[in-house]
Amino acid sequence: SVLLPKFRKMTTHRTFTMIKPDAVENGHIGGILEKITSAGFTIVAMKYTQLSKRDAQAFYAIHKERPFFDELVDFMTRGPIVSAILEKENAVEDFRALIGATNPEDAAEGTIRKLYATDIAENAVHGSDSDENAAIEGAFHFSGREIY
Ligand code: UDP
């Protein structure tokens, strides 16, 4: 819109998400997408895909020294995921609020993880934790031509 300030960066209103293998296996793709669109997010890119070991190791490289790293890579590669780029004002922060805490036991009522996650590892969804990571993660999964 012409009313938006020219200095607004595209990255500040986008986030990146994955519906993880547990939620796909458990039949929750539709429920999770319904929560996302009902909360006012627009889907600007989306695909149904499966990560290779190398993809998952690269995506989660920041966690490579953590004790759960190998388990996380095995989990994230065991079946298909849905990956997507979402757009909304304040997308990163609002999406983190919508998904809830990493451990579903600590997640607020009504959040996606409270509703659909199994445990701290198999927690149904990913959400970027900063604008910078949203841009990096989106570019990791999508080419420019795949983003609306
Ligand atoms: N994870 C895990 N065990 C832990 C903590 C995290 O398996 O003790 C997994 C979980 O799938 C989590 C991901 O590693 O979503 C990334 O962890 P992070 O702390 O970045 O949590 P998030 O940002 O996803 O809430």
Automatic annotation (TrEMBL):
What keywords sit in the KW lines?
A: ATP-binding, Cytoplasm, Kinase, Magnesium, Metal-binding, Nucleotide metabolism, Nucleotide-binding, Phosphoprotein, Transferase
Coiled-coil segments, which residues? Answer: none
Q: Which GO terms describe its biological process?
A: CTP biosynthetic process; GTP biosynthetic process; UTP biosynthetic process
Q: List, alphabetically, the PROSITE patterns matched.
A: NDPK_LIKE (PS51374)
Transmembrane segments in this chain: where? none
Nucleoside diphosphate kinase-like domain residues = 12-147
> Which SMART domains does the protein's record reference?
NDK
Q: Name one Pfam family in it.
A: NDK
KW Nucleotide-binding (keyword) present? yes
Q: Which InterPro entries match?
A: NDK-like_dom (IPR034907), NDK-like_dom_sf (IPR036850), Nucleoside_diP_kinase (IPR001564)
As recorded in UniProt, its EC number(s) are 2.7.4.6
Query: Which CDD domains does the UniProt entry name for this protein?
Result: NDPk_I (cd04413)
Q: Name the job this protein performs.
A: Major role in the synthesis of nucleoside triphosphates other than ATP. The ATP gamma phosphate is transferred to the NDP beta phosphate via a ping-pong mechanism, using a phosphorylated active-site intermediate.
Q: What is the name attached to this protein's record?
A: Nucleoside diphosphate kinase
Which organism does this sequence originate in?
Pricia antarctica
Lineage runs: Bacteria, Pseudomonadati, Bacteroidota, Flavobacteriia, Flavobacteriales
The gene behind this protein is ndk
